[in-house]
Amino acid sequence: MKNTPADSRPREKLLARGAGALSDAELLAILLRTGIVGKGVLQMAEELLDSKLGFGGIAGLLNTTAEDLKRIKGLGPAKRAELVAVLELARRALAEQMQTRTVFESPNAVKDYLQLHLAHKTYEVFAVLFVDAQNRMLAMEELFRGTLTQTSVYPREVVLRALHHHASSVVLCHNHPSGGVQPSKADESLTQTLKAALGLVDVRVLDHIIVAKGQTLSMAERGLI
Protein backbone atom coordinates (compact mmCIF):
# COMPACT_ATOMS: atom_id res chain seq x y z
CA MET A 1 0.00 0.00 0.00
CA LYS A 2 2.99 2.34 0.47
CA ASN A 3 3.38 2.85 -3.28
CA THR A 4 -0.32 3.52 -3.76
CA PRO A 5 -1.32 7.18 -4.23
CA ALA A 6 -2.61 8.63 -0.94
CA ASP A 7 -6.09 9.31 -2.31
CA SER A 8 -6.40 5.65 -3.40
CA ARG A 9 -5.51 4.16 -0.02
CA PRO A 10 -8.67 3.02 1.77
CA ARG A 11 -8.17 5.01 4.99
CA GLU A 12 -7.16 8.24 3.24
CA LYS A 13 -9.90 7.76 0.64
CA LEU A 14 -12.53 7.38 3.36
CA LEU A 15 -11.42 10.53 5.17
CA ALA A 16 -11.28 12.53 1.95
CA ARG A 17 -14.39 11.27 0.16
CA GLY A 18 -16.57 9.52 2.76
CA ALA A 19 -17.28 5.84 3.45
CA GLY A 20 -19.73 5.60 0.54
CA ALA A 21 -16.88 6.08 -1.95
CA LEU A 22 -15.18 2.85 -0.85
CA SER A 23 -15.79 -0.64 -2.15
CA ASP A 24 -16.66 -3.49 0.23
CA ALA A 25 -13.06 -4.75 0.00
CA GLU A 26 -11.64 -1.31 0.80
CA LEU A 27 -13.85 -0.93 3.88
CA LEU A 28 -12.86 -4.41 5.04
CA ALA A 29 -9.17 -3.60 4.44
CA ILE A 30 -9.46 -0.69 6.89
CA LEU A 31 -10.67 -3.12 9.56
CA LEU A 32 -7.92 -5.65 8.80
CA ARG A 33 -5.23 -2.90 8.76
CA THR A 34 -2.34 -5.10 7.62
CA GLY A 35 -1.78 -8.00 5.31
CA ILE A 36 0.74 -10.81 5.58
CA VAL A 37 3.98 -11.62 3.76
CA GLY A 38 3.17 -12.00 0.08
CA LYS A 39 -0.41 -10.77 0.43
CA GLY A 40 -1.41 -7.14 0.85
CA VAL A 41 -4.31 -6.13 3.04
CA LEU A 42 -6.53 -5.22 0.09
CA GLN A 43 -5.88 -8.60 -1.53
CA MET A 44 -6.69 -10.32 1.76
CA ALA A 45 -9.96 -8.39 1.98
CA GLU A 46 -10.87 -9.32 -1.61
CA GLU A 47 -10.18 -12.99 -0.88
CA LEU A 48 -12.36 -12.88 2.24
CA LEU A 49 -15.25 -11.60 0.13
CA ASP A 50 -14.65 -13.99 -2.79
CA SER A 51 -17.30 -16.68 -3.19
CA LYS A 52 -14.71 -19.43 -3.83
CA LEU A 53 -11.85 -18.40 -1.57
CA GLY A 54 -13.73 -16.71 1.24
CA PHE A 55 -17.30 -16.12 2.39
CA GLY A 56 -19.11 -14.80 -0.66
CA GLY A 57 -19.55 -11.09 -0.04
CA ILE A 58 -20.34 -8.92 2.97
CA ALA A 59 -23.51 -10.84 3.86
CA GLY A 60 -21.60 -14.12 3.89
CA LEU A 61 -18.80 -12.63 5.97
CA LEU A 62 -21.23 -11.16 8.50
CA ASN A 63 -22.86 -14.57 8.90
CA THR A 64 -19.61 -16.23 9.96
CA THR A 65 -18.34 -16.95 13.44
CA ALA A 66 -14.93 -16.49 15.03
CA GLU A 67 -14.43 -20.23 14.57
CA ASP A 68 -15.19 -20.00 10.82
CA LEU A 69 -12.64 -17.22 10.43
CA LYS A 70 -9.84 -19.44 11.75
CA ARG A 71 -9.52 -21.14 8.37
CA ILE A 72 -8.38 -17.93 6.68
CA LYS A 73 -4.59 -17.61 6.69
CA GLY A 74 -3.48 -14.29 8.14
CA LEU A 75 -6.51 -13.77 10.36
CA GLY A 76 -5.07 -14.01 13.85
CA PRO A 77 -7.04 -13.71 17.09
CA ALA A 78 -6.99 -9.89 17.04
CA LYS A 79 -8.38 -9.58 13.49
CA ARG A 80 -11.01 -12.25 14.13
CA ALA A 81 -12.09 -10.51 17.32
CA GLU A 82 -12.42 -7.17 15.51
CA LEU A 83 -14.58 -8.64 12.75
CA VAL A 84 -16.85 -10.42 15.23
CA ALA A 85 -17.10 -7.20 17.29
CA VAL A 86 -18.25 -5.27 14.20
CA LEU A 87 -20.93 -7.91 13.62
CA GLU A 88 -22.16 -7.60 17.20
CA LEU A 89 -22.25 -3.79 16.91
CA ALA A 90 -24.37 -4.15 13.77
CA ARG A 91 -26.81 -6.39 15.66
CA ARG A 92 -27.05 -3.94 18.54
CA ALA A 93 -27.51 -0.95 16.24
CA LEU A 94 -30.42 -2.66 14.49
CA ALA A 95 -31.93 -3.68 17.84
CA GLU A 96 -31.70 -0.09 19.06
CA GLN A 97 -33.36 1.12 15.87
CA MET A 98 -36.27 -1.29 16.33
CA GLN A 99 -36.70 -0.30 19.97
CA THR A 100 -37.13 3.36 19.05
CA ARG A 101 -39.06 2.99 15.77
CA THR A 102 -42.12 0.93 14.95
CA VAL A 103 -41.65 -2.47 13.36
CA PHE A 104 -43.95 -1.44 10.51
CA GLU A 105 -41.79 1.58 9.68
CA SER A 106 -38.68 -0.52 9.14
CA PRO A 107 -39.55 -4.05 7.92
CA ASN A 108 -36.17 -4.35 6.21
CA ALA A 109 -34.42 -3.56 9.51
CA VAL A 110 -36.31 -6.47 11.08
CA LYS A 111 -35.16 -8.78 8.29
CA ASP A 112 -31.57 -7.52 8.54
CA TYR A 113 -31.61 -7.96 12.31
CA LEU A 114 -32.84 -11.54 12.02
CA GLN A 115 -30.34 -12.26 9.24
CA LEU A 116 -27.51 -11.19 11.52
CA HIS A 117 -28.86 -13.16 14.47
CA LEU A 118 -29.99 -16.40 12.89
CA ALA A 119 -28.57 -16.99 9.40
CA HIS A 120 -25.13 -18.19 10.53
CA LYS A 121 -26.40 -20.81 12.97
CA THR A 122 -25.81 -24.43 12.00
CA TYR A 123 -28.83 -25.67 13.96
CA GLU A 124 -32.45 -24.65 13.71
CA VAL A 125 -33.63 -21.93 16.09
CA PHE A 126 -37.14 -20.68 16.74
CA ALA A 127 -37.17 -17.13 18.08
CA VAL A 128 -39.77 -14.48 18.89
CA LEU A 129 -39.66 -10.70 18.69
CA PHE A 130 -41.95 -9.27 21.36
CA VAL A 131 -43.59 -5.98 20.34
CA ASP A 132 -45.36 -3.31 22.41
CA ALA A 133 -48.58 -1.41 21.68
CA GLN A 134 -46.61 1.17 19.66
CA ASN A 135 -45.16 -1.64 17.53
CA ARG A 136 -41.66 -1.20 18.95
CA MET A 137 -39.52 -4.20 19.81
CA LEU A 138 -39.41 -5.03 23.52
CA ALA A 139 -37.09 -8.01 23.29
CA MET A 140 -36.00 -10.93 21.18
CA GLU A 141 -35.70 -14.41 22.64
CA GLU A 142 -34.46 -17.66 21.14
CA LEU A 143 -36.98 -20.01 22.69
CA PHE A 144 -36.34 -23.37 21.05
CA ARG A 145 -33.44 -25.13 19.38
CA GLY A 146 -33.52 -28.21 17.23
CA THR A 147 -31.61 -30.19 14.65
CA LEU A 148 -30.94 -29.16 11.07
CA THR A 149 -34.43 -30.28 10.07
CA GLN A 150 -36.87 -29.66 12.89
CA THR A 151 -37.56 -27.86 16.14
CA SER A 152 -40.07 -28.66 18.85
CA VAL A 153 -42.02 -25.49 19.61
CA TYR A 154 -44.36 -25.33 22.60
CA PRO A 155 -47.21 -22.79 22.22
CA ARG A 156 -47.67 -22.56 26.00
CA GLU A 157 -44.08 -21.31 26.44
CA VAL A 158 -44.52 -18.70 23.69
CA VAL A 159 -47.69 -17.44 25.38
CA LEU A 160 -46.00 -17.27 28.79
CA ARG A 161 -43.06 -15.25 27.40
CA ALA A 162 -45.44 -12.86 25.63
CA LEU A 163 -47.27 -12.27 28.90
CA HIS A 164 -43.96 -11.82 30.73
CA HIS A 165 -42.97 -9.01 28.34
CA HIS A 166 -46.50 -7.52 28.33
CA ALA A 167 -46.35 -7.78 24.55
CA SER A 168 -49.22 -6.61 22.38
CA SER A 169 -47.97 -8.55 19.38
CA VAL A 170 -45.13 -10.78 18.22
CA VAL A 171 -43.04 -11.55 15.17
CA LEU A 172 -42.24 -15.26 14.94
CA CYS A 173 -39.01 -16.27 13.25
CA HIS A 174 -36.86 -19.30 12.57
CA ASN A 175 -33.92 -20.24 10.40
CA HIS A 176 -33.36 -22.90 7.77
CA PRO A 177 -29.70 -23.92 8.20
CA SER A 178 -29.86 -26.18 5.15
CA GLY A 179 -30.73 -23.19 2.93
CA GLY A 180 -33.87 -21.95 1.23
CA VAL A 181 -36.68 -19.98 2.83
CA GLN A 182 -39.77 -21.55 1.32
CA PRO A 183 -42.20 -22.30 4.19
CA SER A 184 -43.13 -25.91 4.68
CA LYS A 185 -46.62 -27.16 5.51
CA ALA A 186 -45.33 -27.68 9.06
CA ASP A 187 -44.25 -24.01 9.18
CA GLU A 188 -47.70 -22.90 8.06
CA SER A 189 -49.43 -25.22 10.55
CA LEU A 190 -47.23 -24.04 13.42
CA THR A 191 -47.95 -20.40 12.56
CA GLN A 192 -51.70 -20.96 12.73
CA THR A 193 -51.37 -22.93 16.00
CA LEU A 194 -49.38 -20.12 17.63
CA LYS A 195 -51.71 -17.48 16.21
CA ALA A 196 -54.68 -19.24 17.83
CA ALA A 197 -52.89 -19.74 21.17
CA LEU A 198 -51.68 -16.13 21.38
CA GLY A 199 -55.07 -14.85 20.28
CA LEU A 200 -56.56 -16.27 23.48
CA VAL A 201 -54.53 -13.69 25.46
CA ASP A 202 -55.05 -10.86 22.92
CA VAL A 203 -51.55 -11.02 21.44
CA ARG A 204 -51.39 -10.64 17.65
CA VAL A 205 -48.99 -12.46 15.34
CA LEU A 206 -47.69 -9.78 12.97
CA ASP A 207 -45.46 -12.02 10.89
CA HIS A 208 -43.46 -15.22 10.72
CA ILE A 209 -40.09 -14.64 9.08
CA ILE A 210 -37.92 -17.47 7.76
CA VAL A 211 -34.17 -16.87 7.48
CA ALA A 212 -31.38 -18.59 5.56
CA LYS A 213 -27.95 -17.28 4.61
CA GLY A 214 -28.53 -14.20 2.48
CA GLN A 215 -32.29 -14.77 2.28
CA THR A 216 -35.40 -13.88 4.28
CA LEU A 217 -39.07 -14.58 3.65
CA SER A 218 -42.05 -12.87 5.27
CA MET A 219 -45.06 -15.16 5.57
CA ALA A 220 -47.25 -12.07 6.10
CA GLU A 221 -46.11 -10.70 2.73
CA ARG A 222 -47.02 -14.07 1.20
CA GLY A 223 -50.53 -13.85 2.73
CA LEU A 224 -49.90 -16.82 5.02
CA ILE A 225 -50.65 -15.14 8.38
Task: List its traits.
single chain; 225 residues; alpha+beta; DNA polymerase, domain 1; Cytidine Deaminase, domain 2; 2 domains; 5-stranded mixed beta sheet; 9 helices; 5 strands; 43% helix; 16% strand
What is the element layout, followed by pairings?
Elements: H1 10-17, H2 24-32, H3 41-49, H4 57-62, H5 66-69, H6 77-100, H7 107-118, E1 125-131, E2 137-145, H8 155-164, E3 169-175, H9 185-199, E4 204-212, E5 215-218
Parallel strand pairs: 3-4
Antiparallel strand pairs: 1-2, 1-3, 4-5
Helix pairs in contact: 2-3, 6-7, 8-9
Quaternary: single chain
CATH architecture name of the largest domain: 3-Layer(aba) Sandwich
CATH topology annotation of the largest domain: Cytidine Deaminase, domain 2
CATH C-level name of the largest domain: Alpha Beta
Biggest pleated-sheet summary: 5 strands, mixed
Q: Span from first to last CA?
A: 54 Å
State the order of secondary-structure elements, H for helix, E for strand.
Answer: HHHHHHHEEHEHEE
Low-confidence stretches: none
Question: How many domains is the backbone divided into?
Answer: 2
| Overall strand count | 5
Helix content: 40-55%
Structural features, described:
- The chain has 225 residues and is of the alpha+beta class.
- It folds into two domains: 6-89, DNA polymerase, domain 1 (Orthogonal Bundle), CATH 1.10.150; 102-218, Cytidine Deaminase, domain 2 (3-Layer(aba) Sandwich).
- The protein has helices spanning 10-17, 24-32, 41-49, 57-62, 66-69, 77-100, 107-118, 155-164, 185-199, and strands at 125-131, 137-145, 169-175, 204-212, 215-218.
- A five-stranded mixed beta sheet has the order 2-1-3-4-5, with helices on both faces.
- Helix 9 (185-199) links the parallel strand 3 (169-175) and strand 4 (204-212).
- Helix 2 crosses helix 3, helix 6 (77-100) packs antiparallel against helix 7 (107-118) and helix 8 (155-164) packs across helix 9 (185-199).
- The longest helix is centred in the middle third of the chain and has 24 residues, at 77-100.
- It is elongated, with a radius of gyration of 20 Å.
- It starts with 9 loop residues before the first helix and ends in a 7-residue tail after the last strand.
- The relative contact order is 0.09.
